[in-house]
Amino acid sequence: MTMSNTGGRRKPPTIHDVAREAGVSRGTVSRVLNGGHYVSPAAAQAVDAAIRKTGYVVNRHARSLITGRSDSVGFLLTEPQERFFEDPNFNVLLRGCTQALAAHDIPLLLMIAGTQDERRRIVRYITAGHVDGVLLVSSHSGDPVAEELRAAGVPLVACGKPIGLGSKVSYVAADDRDGARDMVRHLLDLGRRRVGVVTGPLDTPGGVERLAGYQEVLAEAGLEADGRLVVSGDYSRASGEAGAERLLARAPDMDAVFVASDLMAQGVLTALHRAGRRVPQDVAVGGFDDSPAAVATSPRLTTIRQPWDRISAEMVRVLLARIGGEEPAAVILPTELVKREST
Amino acid sequence: MTMSNTGGRRKPPTIHDVAREAGVSRGTVSRVLNGGHYVSPAAAQAVDAAIRKTGYVVNRHARSLITGRSDSVGFLLTEPQERFFEDPNFNVLLRGCTQALAAHDIPLLLMIAGTQDERRRIVRYITAGHVDGVLLVSSHSGDPVAEELRAAGVPLVACGKPIGLGSKVSYVAADDRDGARDMVRHLLDLGRRRVGVVTGPLDTPGGVERLAGYQEVLAEAGLEADGRLVVSGDYSRASGEAGAERLLARAPDMDAVFVASDLMAQGVLTALHRAGRRVPQDVAVGGFDDSPAAVATSPRLTTIRQPWDRISAEMVRVLLARIGGEEPAAVILPTELVKREST
DNA sequence: CTGAAAGCGCTTACAG
DNA sequence: CTGAAAGCGCTTACAG
């Protein structure tokens, strides 16, 4: 009875079955499996046929045992879980990485380091060699997990430039400063002159660089820097809302805001609406990310598109190269202004 | 040069090193590792000490090769990717499952079946035995992947009752009908009499059952069923918005809406707002899920809480039991009305 | 309770 | 180009 279902899983064919079927040795089958070098066309063909006939699939454990590779990678999230729950950017990234890895037949192990305990367990798991490398998503500086992994020599590639890890770690990022410049220039082109900004956390590159881009463009336009127009958030919707309220209180004549993330921009829209300001007539709002959040608002957000597909594809490419022995590399991808109704 | 970083990964200690250090055989070390049965206290202690001293961590590939288990499970998402990007429920579930599995030292492999090609690859991967079982998230009926896996005898547990798979597959679900009943009763208790509903897709249990709960309570209250008050959505925000517009057009006197998901309720709020209806004064809005989306709106949503933590914990528990040879089981968990400002 | 031994399914020098 | 053989690190009957 108990077997009726699970009994469906028979012992799968091994390389030995394929070898016998093809009339060759197991070594030859293995060579075909691993690129087909040093194999005669005839043998290769016989093996291919035998594989199809037997339905053979390689046993990854046996392979890993001997190669020392796991042929899997970890996707490590060290963000506070509220952000993970709230920000659709993670989903986009996760989807992109899963897809890019699938093309290489490499499974993605999801690791979420919320508590201290989880952090420890995950570091132990990774440094034990259970994954070949790690895709790291953690924006904040001084991440102890990242540093531990780097020190242990684990191949790593971060999403966004990791502050405080030196140049020894690979990363893929959008051109934050340039993106911010594009948005602020766009706002100025619209004729706005009192442009506020809600930055990201200033211990993240996105926080620092997007602010820098804002400041540069204002200076180039000959507008004086006004501290009342600058507030910081933590990328959460709530912090955007609170930030807009502070801006409104300090600079009621503000006619535009550049917000360093779409999620915060959602909060800004809420606060503006409550304050009776029309968007974009009274205040133009520009976001950053072009995440799914950007089209969930009304009006929909003008924003700076981060090329998530390319970001995830590059993260995977760089990680696999790193696993293959290449030196660390940084990849900076261009952004794009997406014009919608909020400006 | 190339070695400078990756060279940090030395050959890790094996069971052999531990055995030598502890002065016992490898078999004894293995026995300690696997529960400590048939091992003398003295030997166990020596082995434990040797493990700590050497920093030994089991090589999972070697273990799997012999046990035939992979000691990992897949988390399979067969939803259209838009839903995955938009709906924070997935994140909550993913987080919960990862956490529950981590307690068992079992990694979660994320699998996203968007395209036909991905579907095929994933089925091949799973049926090859690369994971011991699968946590399945796919609300729609007639999912071919689910059926293929079930037929192949892969241990499976679904989130929500899988329509069309018969009773042969385990699942964990919230009590949809009861939750819907609670919400509609709450609306009636508020004095509302023209209560509309935006259902989920009617080929999902959540769609069918929540509608049934709505209908039951109205009937019990002696209110006549009015088809103009019933529209269906697909759980997306946009479909909620469109649904509310249709309701408003067909039943302008509507004074409450029960919406079968928080995300759709977000859309309903947008449409209501645009139509100049105040919430909750003119129209009370009740959601379902208590997802992070419920507190991102203004006013925040009164909703039916699905116990996500328990759902994910139970999914993992049931799956591990199933992998261990137990028969399929269904677990239905109670919901709870969460009162906020939208009613 | 414990050790010696077989074997899981693969890859990879090594000879030819 | 190909086969025979060793060995990856573990678990598990089998004898004691």
TrEMBL record, chains A, B:
Domain HTH cro/C1-type: 14-57
SMART domains linked to this entry: HTH_LACI
GO MF entries: DNA binding
Pfam families: LacI, Peripla_BP_3
Keywords: DNA-binding, Transcription, Transcription regulation
Domain HTH lacI-type: 13-67
UniProt-listed InterPro entries: Cro/C1-type_HTH, HTH_LacI, LacI/GalR-like_sensor, Lambda_DNA-bd_dom_sf, Peripla_BP_I
Superkingdom, taxonomy of origin: Bacteria
Gene3D superfamilies attached to this UniProt entry: 3.40.50.2300, lambda repressor-like DNA-binding domains
Protein name (Swiss-Prot/TrEMBL): LacI family DNA-binding transcriptional regulator
Naturally occurring in which organism (per UniProt): Streptomyces cathayae
